[in-house]
């Protein structure tokens, strides 16, 4: 049995253990494929407590030295992965960032000129003052027009203007939940949603996903396991799996919401990217008394235009309005005016169409470069979800990719449950030129093919 000698090593014992593993691999005392002692056996052998050994092994895994396989044990990697580059504090990543899922703006100077050219002085001055929390009637009417385009018929009086979809989700959670309440999220969920639930002191549990999205049986099992206040769900281009929930599945989920009296928060921020012919009725149309519907222009027109809409159930409208007042007072009237003008003129839909076409071009590049690998894409999506072959783990792959100048997002970022490793990464297609994207994807492909 391999036994580390930690006597001469300084610093914390867990870091010393990881350093000893690295040294043993370097000198050949540990060869690729060697099975390491179990944590309990090693702890007894070297006189360390079990927690210290666990931390030491975990650090060695993060460094790409060893891999832990449930049910089999811990092994020296056959293809060691270099440690990630640690950038100086305050320095920005200098390579191609394919980790963020923000599209470039589809708006141009002409779009802004059109808005401001028709802006009278008295109206402009009025937009600089305070407004009521729900927003002015004209801007809410434009939001109702945008929702109608997405398949949701609503009057302006039921709609609230919010500062982007995440703000709408925040208001919904504050309206429905109290700290400590149990909230259900998709087993792979947006890091922003996970962080928001944690910040609000909510207990997160997951609902299984399949290729069609949240599973009815999984939702039923999660509800049988304990009371839950809300389900957060993305039926269109689920982030990160890109599932589009079919009509039958939507009807099943809506039926469970009504029967179980469970509120859902439907995040439809990606819905505007789908072609009209592919768009299905949102959950809110199937269970309006139980769904808070949220969408925005961030993915469809311009990320910097922090304008979105929240449609709460009638029973929650007053409480949601109070939470809107508390969290922001109001959404910027000037931004709301720009959004309203773009919607009324048809420019917002044109912008979404341009982004959709750009996404289609970039998906085609990804499909060509990553051909033969296991993963999921969609012609209208802003990213691909790439499953990693053995022996890669998601954090190791992301670290190695960053060292080679390409940033991707590890599946760990989407997993509320610690210790679950999906061996996948999300690769955003939105940053850089088409040529930049092709070079970045080629780098990733070279890594997976063993050429880097």
Structure characterization notes:
The protein is an alpha/beta fold and 452 residues long. Helices cover 41% and strands 14% of the residues. The protein has a 7-stranded mixed β-sheet, with helices on both faces. A 4-stranded antiparallel β-sheet has the order 13-14-17-16, covered by helices on one side. Strands 1-2 form a two-stranded antiparallel sheet. Helix 10 links the parallel strand 9 (230-233) and strand 10 (263-267). Helix 6 crosses helix 13. It is globular. It has helices spanning 13-27, 39-46, 50-62, 109-117, 121-126, 137-149, 165-176, 191-199, 216-224, 247-260, 283-286, 317-327, 333-345, 347-369, 394-403, 434-448; strands at 66-69, 73-76, 96-97, 160-162, 182-186, 203-207, 209-210, 213-214, 230-233, 263-267, 291-296, 308-311, 375-376, 383-387, 406-407, 409-410, 424-428. The two termini are 33 Å apart. Mean pLDDT is 87; it is low at 82-93.
